[in-house]
Amino acid sequence: MQISSSSSAYGGGEAQRLLAALLSQQAPQAGSAGQEMPGAGGVGGPPPGPPPGPPPPRGGAASSQFGQAALSGLISAQAEPPSSSDMAARLISDVDADGDGTLSLSEVQTSLGSEDDTGLADALSKLDSDGDGKLSSSELTAALDSFKAAHQPPGASSQGSSVTA
Fold first, then answer.
1. Which among 145, 81, 135 has a CA at the least distance from the CA of 108?
2. Is the Cα torsion angle 78, 146, 126, 100 positive or negative in sign?
3. Average pLDDT of the residues in 143-148
4. What was the pLDDT predicted at 58?
5. How far apart are CA 121 and CA 15, in angstroms?
6. Distance between CA 114 and CA 3 in Å, rounded?
7. How much is the pTM?
8. Calculated CA dihedral for residues 17, 21, 27, 33, nearest 10 degrees
9. How many Å apart are CA 146 and CA 163, to the nearest integer?
């Protein structure tokens, strides 16, 4: 399935990445057996270019302001990840162009910038448990829960997992 990286007016980048991850899981591509590991591309060693410079000096008004902003960002980033139902609702609100509360094949295609009708339709039909040709909030929630379970590190609890694409 070919999915472009162009943005659209219907969904933000986050919604596009999440939809692409869900649909790619349903229609695996040849050669995508697992996670790419650093250095697995055949070229090893350090990255090109000079080594990084020394850390910035401590102290001063600018560093304390940056510290407060960075700390605030880190604290908010560590908040509990959204639930699958919250993410499904967000996907629908970002991608649902006709306002019917579901995602049709054409809405998903538009959001992902995909022109592959067959591959995308096959992937969508695997998530469409009631066979109506659209993805409802409950179908997306079930798919996200399944995605979380499949991509959870061994021994991790499902409580703290989040879907990122």
1. 135
2. negative
3. 90
4. 66
5. 18
6. 5
7. 0.54
8. 120
9. 10
